[in-house]
Amino acid sequence: MTDKKTDKKTVAFGEIMLRLSSPSGAIAGSSTFDACYGGTEANVLACMSGFGHKTDYLTALPDNGLGRAALDHLRSFGIGTDNAVINGDKLGVYFTESGSGSRGASVIYYRRDSEFARLDERAFDLDKVFDGAELFHISGISFALSESSRRLAFALLDGAKARGVKVSFDFNYRAKLWSTDRAREQFVKAVRYADVVLASDLDLSVFLDTDATGFFAEYPARYLAVRNRKPVDGGAHSVNVTLYENDGGAVKKYASPEIKFAVTERVGGGDAFDGALLHMLSCGADIENAVDFALAAFVLKHSVKGDTFTLGADEVRKFIPKLGAKQ
Question: What is the number of structural domains in the chain?
Fold first, then answer.
């Protein structure tokens, strides 16, 4: 399942939760739920670990059976947990129903006052967590959960930049966690730290009041990946991606064709895309090959149950020609 091992280490900060999915479709009508563990940053690390990267997950888990089960889950994917905080008794939980057609998945959160949300700037030794790190990955979710997790998120960003560690940022806006106005204030600041920004056109317009053509005039990122998806007929979706690279002021771009794909699992596609794209950029791939590989992982994830992408790099590469993309 793994690609060739590498000395490149990716650190990520985020919350892992217990996911309870309604097998019947609607939460209201379910008497049983399928359980697994998930969280967007953990999913990105699992993907990169599967592609051969060293990883370190900065998170918090309760000191009980649920926390230990979540740790086992993370370690089963090769995710490093040496710096995870183990304390207290509350793990975040979310309930999902899958939706159908153009109706998206519905989520109910039980994550307020989780051990992760209680973390503050004293939680991690920054010299230790960033030792040997090449990349620090974070998403907008960690800025939404509490004032203390927001302060810690910015402390980690400061720590990464001070130590020469590159930063990737995915907006991952969750309307059930906070308003667009509150998110905008934080996102404008967070994006300024990022070397790689993962976004949609809507993210750019709503939170940054710009578009892809104006982005690099305001923000110092090296890469901007813009991924847009939409529902089509028969429960299928379509996606297109444009990756921009700012090479010393000269902006290059590669735009994928629009790809239509079937949807079996709605959770985790964006995380697989992020992990695959970051893997390829870390390995020095050009923007066209990076997009093709990330798109293949994104589409494949919609056929893989659960939060986590479990296919290896060889399987992703073999799937690229089926997208109509170049190998």
Answer: 1
